[in-house]
Amino acid sequence: ETKIWYVDNPVNKEEVYPQIVDAAKNLQLGQVVAFPTETVYGLGANALSDEAVQRIFQAKGRPSDNPLIVHIANEEQLDHLVEEIPLNAKKLMDAFWPGPLTLILKSKKHVSKYVTAGLSTVGIRMPDHPVALALIEACNLPIAAPSANTSGKPSPTSAKHVFEDLNGQIVGIVDGGSTGVGLESTVIDCSQDIFTILRPGSITPEMIKEIIPTVEVDPATMKENEAPKSPGMKYKHYAPDAQMHLVNGSIEFMHKLIHNSKTEGKRVGILTTEENATKYDADVVLTCGKRSDLSTVAAALYDCIRQFNEEHVDIIYCETFPYEGIGIAIMNRLWKACGHSVIQE
Ligand code: TXA
Ligand code: MG
């Protein structure tokens, strides 16, 4: 049975929390512990121990060629992990850390090869969450952590999601409430002369361009038949049990799709926003934030996708979002959750 360590948010820097001390001790002993970050819950283990990191892969059922992100609480920890820090990478750290940005840098040898999946680079991020930072400080270790879901499922945005997926597989979950951003960090490869965004997130290309002049976006984030540069981007991900389709069309077109699926005897789910919630005559209509503020859509997205499983729908139609700001990350995750299925009016 997996233990739950409740921690009230926000954590007071001066106070010692016995729950966090206990969780940190387990990390030092090579155990796997789930913890909240500002993006999604992470499944943490000592990044310097092969044994500890292998336990993460076991618990998640994660393919071993998919590298993990190492989480740090201060920049001193960075020197032990990476060979060199390009000036532009330093500028990004100064601008966005702590925060939802992962930098891919040249790795030092003693980082577990299970973390890097044998690559010469390692992904590093300093999360902007008081519980995550307190936990990393308390164990005084770099913490390798993928999202704390079973491989293929949507990333967990609450301790309940983690418990659903991993109860019995890990020693414990630090429960610090719901995460804020709701989508995983932006991943940027800083190991080449021109930096490339491998995974879009809430730190948008526009925000990055304000700090460094040129940045590319890996075309595989949105196009089929492109070989992704980030191993994790090639896997089926974030998927609900039922087939989901992105629908690029009018409300009338959506009505036709709903009608046709109902005629086939299917139980139909719709993923929509507050603005359009009353417009559909489907079996299950789930509202995911407000279209007028896309950060609310990001925050609610994975919980909505998980709810469809509880509602036992046969097919899901999902609205599309503007391809700008955090909308880029939302569309990337939906596109993957739909197995790239887009229905065009
Ligand atoms: O917000 C987040 O990033 C969350 C929280 C827990 O910090 N973590 C997360 O980890 O989303 P994960 O393992 O689910 O996703 C890590 C992504 C994968 O797509 C992986 O392939 C990529 O980062 N990645 C990690 N190291 C890499 C490397 N050296 N080169 C290229 N891609 C890398
Ligand atoms: Mg993940």
From TrEMBL:
<dbReference type="InterPro" id="IPR010923">
    <property type="entry name" value="T(6)A37_SUA5"/>
</dbReference>
<keyword id="KW-0819">tRNA processing</keyword>
<dbReference type="Pfam" id="PF01300">
    <property type="entry name" value="Sua5_yciO_yrdC"/>
</dbReference>
<keyword id="KW-0963">Cytoplasm</keyword>
<keyword id="KW-0808">Transferase</keyword>
<keyword id="KW-0067">ATP-binding</keyword>
<protein>
    <recommendedName>
        <fullName>Threonylcarbamoyl-AMP synthase</fullName>
        <ecNumber>2.7.7.87</ecNumber>
    </recommendedName>
</protein>
<dbReference type="InterPro" id="IPR038385">
    <property type="entry name" value="Sua5/YwlC_C"/>
</dbReference>
<dbReference type="InterPro" id="IPR006070">
    <property type="entry name" value="Sua5-like_dom"/>
</dbReference>
<dbReference type="InterPro" id="IPR017945">
    <property type="entry name" value="DHBP_synth_RibB-like_a/b_dom"/>
</dbReference>
<dbReference type="InterPro" id="IPR050156">
    <property type="entry name" value="TC-AMP_synthase_SUA5"/>
</dbReference>
<keyword id="KW-0548">Nucleotidyltransferase</keyword>
<comment type="similarity">
    <text>Belongs to the SUA5 family.</text>
</comment>
<dbReference type="Pfam" id="PF03481">
    <property type="entry name" value="Sua5_C"/>
</dbReference>
<dbReference type="InterPro" id="IPR005145">
    <property type="entry name" value="Sua5_C"/>
</dbReference>
<comment type="function">
    <text>Required for the formation of a threonylcarbamoyl group on adenosine at position 37 (t(6)A37) in tRNAs that read codons beginning with adenine.</text>
</comment>
<keyword id="KW-0547">Nucleotide-binding</keyword>
<feature type="domain" description="YrdC-like">
    <location>
        <begin position="14"/>
        <end position="203"/>
    </location>
</feature>
